[in-house]
User: What shape does this take?
Amino acid sequence: MGLRLGPTTVQFASPPNILSSASVAGKTEKDGAYGLSFDLTFDDDLWGEKTYELAERKMFQKAVETAIERASLKPNDISYLYGGDLLNQIISSGFAARELGIPFFGLYGACSTMAESLILGAMAVDGGFAQYAVCGTSSHFATAERQFRYPLELGTPKTPTSQNTVTGAGAVLLTSLRGQYPAVTHATTGRVIDMGINDVNNMGAAMAPAATETILSHLEETQRNPEYYDAIITGDLGTFGSELLIKLANDAGKNLSAVHKDCGAMIYEGNPLAKCGGSGCGCGASMLGGFFLNEMRGGRLNKILFVATGALHSPTSTLQGETIPSIAHAAAIEMGCGQ
Amino acid sequence: MGLRLGPTTVQFASPPNILSSASVAGKTEKDGAYGLSFDLTFDDDLWGEKTYELAERKMFQKAVETAIERASLKPNDISYLYGGDLLNQIISSGFAARELGIPFFGLYGACSTMAESLILGAMAVDGGFAQYAVCGTSSHFATAERQFRYPLELGTPKTPTSQNTVTGAGAVLLTSLRGQYPAVTHATTGRVIDMGINDVNNMGAAMAPAATETILSHLEETQRNPEYYDAIITGDLGTFGSELLIKLANDAGKNLSAVHKDCGAMIYEGNPLAKCGGSGCGCGASMLGGFFLNEMRGGRLNKILFVATGALHSPTSTLQGETIPSIAHAAAIEMGCGQ
Assistant: This one.
């Protein structure tokens, strides 16, 4: 059962536990600073498939299957699959759901999808609708480039504020069973924010205001300070978007600099080709499903706020002169709350 | 709180009431047999806007706003907006959500989105996460044609099995407040089904197996016969898909012919230009938000099962030689259960 704390935040009465998780990543991500934290990796862009789209679908499916196997469960034990991705008509998730055979809720939250799926899954589990629910998302550099920007074959140079879509996927398996696991304790659902940015090579700037609003609402409604959390983790603001988040939060009287981490800045740490860092739903999802949840299980992190941000534009809306609306959802994940 | 009846169906402990609803439609729909049941209609494809996409966004927004106004509420009284549409990156819903300012869950279930949003909204309300949640979706003939098939300017002729995307939108406002309203009592969430259809001009055939599976699962898990319902209403199978549904259900020993209605077959009744009838998320949404819920409020229908079906392909997946995976979600709506 939910307890409403304010206009955007609810608290879970019996925080759903994260029984298991999984992460999948491509070669650039594997070669990065967090390469060892991914469960499955592959060395080309196709992973043995004929198209990039098939490779992305495989990543989504493998992430979900791995999370389910790790919990010693089978797909037909799972009540619901919550998933989405960046591709038109979310074909990665939809086609993977066909193979998995789990009742499926298709989502589109752009790069906010991992947090969106976690929130909806946690509501179903805490509401008594599911004993097990799996939440996942994926992105792929090559499928995203040709859909949102230019075909790779054009060789278009990158602008300094651009980010690199992460080839990666992540999945999280939630349960109503009690035990010593990371548990989803609170959910803050974002509003769509638009500060007038219209540069599709500057997603960080478009999404930072949404992240700021969601984090500030979360802190206010839960009456917590930033330091309550060991880490406030944004999905893919990148280095430029992260600076903007820190500044906007500072202007509102909250200093996030000591606890803020950004998966997009981390995943390509030290790789200048990635410009401002990683982006895409798979960025936050693979870092959460791998590194961050491993850190929690290992006792090195106890309380995190996972904030995934999404840019809700399309190539059509951009061509029609629209700015980039953005959204951020946040899920608090804490140890010791799911017993 | 949810009570799980089987692998796909849950029962709501305190069935969320439909406090109000609204429907919007274009000219062809207004001129049809159910024209008077739509709350707002317009006479060209643009509704005073510069692009078809802007007209669709306006339909989505007006449907949601009208449902909220009818309940004498304001957007900031609403905890969550659940919405999606057929356009890439669901720009109709996403941009409308920016104007509405309600915490937003973006969905993609193709034409199944109205039932998907109802289920997720009802779970949030019954789970204690929201006092009010609004669920909506839209589609537009001109935006869908140029995205999924051919630009209108090409003048491509229609095949006999083709359907006409409905220009329409619908919204439903759910509440935990008790009273004499239509109430969402059960939700059956679909799996992705694929019978190998690859003709994008034969959506009815692609979606009928998904509708059949979801309806049969629902009846089995609730231990109800088809006649329990005054109407089992599919969203947009059209005439050909409806025949197929009746046949497939008959083969499985269930006779749906006395109670089955299809919004796609109804909305263009008697209009030969529409071939097999209407399709699109806005088809089921505008008929539910208008005609069917009006019939319930007027006492002419007491128990309905609303089943929306979606085809989860994309132009890319079709060009890459994939078949059309489909999904159907069902929500039971009954009078006298929300007191």
